[in-house]
Amino acid sequence: MTSTVVKQDDADAAAEPGPPASRWRERLTDTNIARLVELLALVPVVAMIMEVARAGKLQWLDYWYVLIRITNPDGSFRPLGVFTPQNEHPLIIPSLLYWLDAKLADGDNRVLGYLVIVVAGATVLLLRAVLPRSLPPLARAGLVVAASALVFSLQGMHMFVRSMSGAAWLTANLIVVASLLFAAKGKWWPAWVAGVLASASYGTAFALWPALALLAILRRERWTYRVTPLGIGVVIIGIWYALKPNDWVGGTPANDIGSLLFTFLTILGKMWTATVPGFAVVAGALTLVVYTILATNRTAQQPALRFWWALACYGVLACGMTGMARMDFGAEFGLESRYSSIAVIAAIPLLVITSVVIYRGVRRNAQKIAAMAVGIGVIGFTLGVPTATDLRNKIREHPLEAVAIRAGYGDTLGPVLPREDELEPDLRALSHYPFNDSFSLGCGGPELGSTIDVGDAEPLPAPGTRAPFEPVGVVNSIDDRGEAHLITGWATGGAHREADQVSCVLVVDGNGKVVGGGVSGQPRGDVTATYWELSPNVGFKLIGPVTDETRIVVVYDSGAMRWLPPEVTDTGD
């Protein structure tokens, strides 16, 4: 009878509403709330889509060298070309993506960039699928937001706006994650096949094979499954070594343990600074310390975390491989934007494993873990602002290469482009940008080869000591590159808001023929520091042949034209 009364009392107590704090906590851990939080993961994706949309159509560096290897003179595909490594890296799958972009989208950098965003998004979704179910929905949602913020971080914007790079690095990472997912479920053959595909995408994927072996050990698989990944990795590296060109890649040889550690730790900690190598070294070292501490924790050893330990192994080893290959390039080279892709892979497992340990140690921490994860993601995303600013400035100047290619001055720019006689025939055969109708100098009329009348145009005077209210212009340098010259300077219609703004700048020969062009509206902090009231984007950079009869013609929005002589302006400095 007594027992019955106690049970009834307990039931009555359970039926009573809990304290306000309890109800608030339950709402925060509700699945619907978690789904709303997870929508925040779309914010960095949208931000990167906007960056790619502004990135411009022209491709970058390695893309050109790969394209001429995989293209026959008639524009058809050359399959054997995909097997030649680029900068020591196998690029078989990326080469195919480059080819499809060239054939189907005129080689548009932005189209390939959108594909890279899809690849990165698929990586986040795969990581989301394997988050430990021991964590409540809200905590998992916070981790998804963090993963998205880090994968799409401004630190790694290089991967998206220079899509040829992301098509290699991020495709390899996606296939690596898929391979480890197969292995975590005991599906070894699909895991090994995926591993081969990853290794065909980029050299960082070579680090996958020890990670697969570690996963087999953690799963207590037979020795066959533990050794086979290492054997496959050795074979793949042997094939790569046989195919690798005997080219020198690097700067002054370092060949010391200190330089190796410095570069490795800088890359590992790259996510947490954009400009300070020493801070990246500290962050990289702390990452290894925390991993070591977690490895001794019993909660961190649970089966649900085996995948994350294997992924961490891959990320750390990939950073180590890159550090070993690139330590000759200098102390700050490890801060290059493209290296953030492997730093992210090393950072996300640390965040997941730490979250599981914290939640197991102190219950009712779902909202705190979610807040921590989102906060770390926000930090990782926004620390890349200096990197993004630098990349945006380079993007603004990049169309100069399109003018050089189209006008036949590509050799004047050096190794950023292949030899002109190798590149131009392939691009013409493919109707590849800039050899199609989508190319323009952006003047709203005059193009390369056009003839314009500059007879009535007035010369642009040099500025005085105060902000000019009338049109002025300056030529700062004329660099003779052989068949063409690189010309830098600045021009403005005046310091007031109603001033006629510069539309474009051209190089015109003595007959009025447009023989060169480039980019205008470039930021010139040195100019605006002298003339406070000027627009910050007054600079121009041109390419074209210079003779005594050459005119540098500034075209304004109104259609008015003024000119500068082909000589460095004497400003009286």
TrEMBL record:
Transmembrane segments: 33-53, 111-131, 166-184, 190-216, 223-243, 271-295, 307-327, 339-362, 369-388
Domain of life where this protein originates: Bacteria
Positions of the UniProt region annotated as Disordered: 1-22
Keywords: Membrane, Transmembrane, Transmembrane helix
Name by which UniProt lists this protein: Glycosyltransferase RgtA/B/C/D-like domain-containing protein
Organism: Actinophytocola gossypii
